[in-house]
Specification:
TetR family transcriptional regulator, transcription, single chain, DNA-binding, mainly alpha, elongated, MT1864/Rv1816-like_C
């Protein structure tokens, strides 16, 4: 790459970052449904036609923001896992749950973008899937490590659900028992339900010591997937 090409690439990265940051401010103020390329362009002092060279449509910009958000929470989960790599599996599970909650509380609008109400008229493309899977893969890895190490507690599912558990294992949870795969998906949904309830005010006048409550709930989720109590 020549010096001129490198300078152009850096300039494009800087403008792209500025566009996304302006879009995040608009998300915070107006919500994802009202995201507008024209409004973003006005905030940055750009003409709309110039912005379209970076993001051809609102959906392209939304997709970039969604991938960034999934990658950010995924990185938080992975850092938490790695920071307690020598801890027992239940402790690692709880540490990851707490990291995901911390990220959500620090980035409520980005959390709402990826785990809140769907954006009308928008359908997420397949390109979002790898980033969206990062948190789930951290939890799957903890369960897999536990199975290969200290072992998992006995789990059971109804006979008519076992084929679905086997499909989950084949699709995204290799080397995990079907019973644990089913429990993992349930725990994943419950985790984000807990966080969403806190973030969107459903715990107001219900749960006061939310950090302690969340840690307890995360420990119960660890038990539910066969890790035991941390």
């Amino acid at each position: 790459m020549t010096t001129a090409q490198g300078a152009r690439a850096r300039a494009r990265q800087e403008v792209t970052a500025a566009i996304k940051e302006a879009a995040r401010r608009q998300l915070a103020a107006e919500g994802a449904a009202k995201l507008s390329l024209r409004a973003v362009a006005r905030e940055l002092g750009m003409v709309s036609s110039a912005l379209y060279r970076y993001f051809p449509s609102r959906d392209d910009l939304l997709t970039a923001l969604i991938i960034d958000a999934y990658d950010a929470v995924g990185e938080a989960a992975e850092r938490a896992r790695d920071a307690v790599a020598d801890a027992p599996p239940p402790a690692r599970w709880i540490a990851v749950c707490e990291a995901v909650r911390d990220w959500a509380l620090a980035h409520p609008h980005e959390y709402a973008l990826i785990y809140g109400s769907p954006v009308p008229g928008y359908s997420a493309p397949e390109t979002t899937v790898p980033a969206a899977a990062r948190v789930g893969m951290v939890f799957i890895g903890i369960v897999r490590d536990a199975r290969e190490g200290p072992g998992l507690s006995a789990l059971s599912v109804p006979a008519d659900l076992r084929p679905e558990g086997a499909r989950m294992v084949a699709d995204f949870a290799a080397d995990v028992p079907p019973e644990a795969a089913v429990a993992l998906v349930a725990a994943w949904a419950q985790l984000f339900g807990l966080i969403g309830f806190e973030l969107f005010g459903q715990f107001n006048r219900v749960v006061e010591d939310r950090e302690t409550f969340f840690r307890h709930a995360a420990g119960r989720l660890a038990e539910g997937v066969g890790l035991g109590r941390g």
